[in-house]
């Protein structure tokens, strides 16, 4: 990889606290862009806006989704801003390039009854597995944490049965999220059996494992969630840890929660990201009226 790209990644890690997954994605983006330019006899320092547009067109031809193209263009924009700040370039060619149009699909939402079925299925798992699964799902539904935030919780975060969870999210930013009584009870049950699962090992993680990370992984939790979904009679193809985060947000808003409060609890930097859940509620209300209002069916036959 070009040394300027390496310097950019080092800056993103050291100064902006970019997560490992983000850095890996940016590395792949920059390598792909660099190889594309090399085939044209250009470099990261010489490429202009037309080169960027041609790279995006090449991605589209390779079947990459507009959302992926937009994310890669965002990475390139940050990289070029870094080059300008470092005095390596006088301009940012991405500033002249329009991002691909991205539709805004509504997130998948679970009903409250489906969530109750999931929680019941988690509690029904045998022995310590059920206790841990219940703690994971109750905490996720009560807080709307990102799955990486959930599995990476330190034991110290809940050691004293807090009413509020302090979470370190994207960019190492901290936020506070209230814990519901059911979540606190589930976590207390897990704390009572957690040490016995360690077999004498020491661990600073709330949900420890023997893997390299030292804690339950995202994929490990996703597999657990799939098993629970099957037991609850829910199609696992329509369920993921992120769907429970969606359920947390949409159910709060349906209950009358303030949008800004939900934004803070989700850790969204931009309220526009949170506003997607208002569209979910609007869509739900439209279906409700169409399905139950006495004049809705009659209106469809009017000419």
From TrEMBL:
Single GO biological process annotation from the record: DNA transposition
Residues in Core-binding (CB) domain copies: 1-84
Gene3D superfamilies from the UniProt entry: 1.10.150.130, Intergrase catalytic core (1.10.443.10)
Domain Tyr recombinase: 105-290
Family recorded in the similarity comment: Belongs to the 'phage' integrase family. XerD subfamily.
Any one GO molecular-function label of the UniProt entry: tyrosine-based site-specific recombinase activity
Protein name: Tyrosine recombinase XerD
Active-site feature positions: 146, 170, 242, 245, 268, 277
UniProt keyword list: Cell cycle, Cell division, Chromosome partition, Cytoplasm, DNA integration, DNA recombination, DNA-binding
Any GO CC annotation of this UniProt entry: cytoplasm
Function comment: Site-specific tyrosine recombinase, which acts by catalyzing the cutting and rejoining of the recombining DNA molecules. The XerC-XerD complex is essential to convert dimers of the bacterial chromosome into monomers to permit their segregation at cell division. It also contributes to the segregational stability of plasmids.
NCBIfam families in alphabetical order: PRK00283.1 (NF001399)
Lineage start: Bacteria, Pseudomonadati, Pseudomonadota, Alphaproteobacteria, Rhodospirillales
Subunit structure: Forms a cyclic heterotetrameric complex composed of two molecules of XerC and two molecules of XerD.
Cellular localization per UniProt: Cytoplasm
């Amino acid at each position: 990889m070009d040394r300027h790209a390496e310097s950019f990644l080092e800056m993103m890690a050291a100064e902006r606290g970019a997560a490992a997954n983000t850095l890996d994605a940016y590395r792949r983006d920059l390598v792909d862009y660099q190889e594309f330019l090399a085939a044209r006899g250009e470099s990261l320092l010489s490429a202009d806006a037309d080169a960027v547009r041609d790279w995006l067109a090449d991605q589209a031809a390779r079947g990459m989704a507009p959302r992926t193209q937009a994310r890669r263009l965002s990475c390139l924009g940050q990289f070029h801003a870094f080059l300008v700040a470092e005095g390596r370039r006088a301009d940012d060619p991405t500033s002249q390039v329009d991002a691909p149009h991205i539709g805004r699909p509504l997130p998948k939402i679970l009903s409250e009854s489906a969530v109750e079925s999931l929680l019941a299925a988690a509690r029904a798992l045998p022995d310590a597995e059920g206790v841990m699964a219940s703690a994971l799902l109750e905490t996720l539904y009560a807080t709307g944490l990102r799955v990486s935030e959930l599995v990476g919780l330190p034991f110290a975060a809940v050691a004293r049965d807090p009413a509020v969870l302090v979470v370190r999210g994207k960019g190492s930013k901290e936020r506070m999220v209230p814990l519901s009584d059911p979540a606190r009870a589930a976590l207390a049950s897990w704390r009572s059996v957690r040490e016995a699962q360690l077999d004498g090992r020491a661990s600073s993680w709330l949900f420890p494992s023997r893997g390299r990370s030292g804690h339950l992984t995202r994929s490990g939790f996703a597999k657990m969630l799939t098993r629970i979904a099957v037991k609850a009679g829910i199609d696992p193809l329509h369920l993921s840890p992120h769907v429970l985060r969606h359920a947390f947000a949409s159910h709060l808003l349906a209950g009358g929660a303030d949008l800004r409060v939900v934004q803070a609890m989700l850790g969204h930097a931009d309220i526009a990201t949170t506003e997607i859940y208002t569209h979910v509620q609007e869509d739900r209300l439209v279906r409700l009226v169409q399905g139950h209002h006495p004049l809705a069916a009659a209106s469809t036959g009017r000419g």
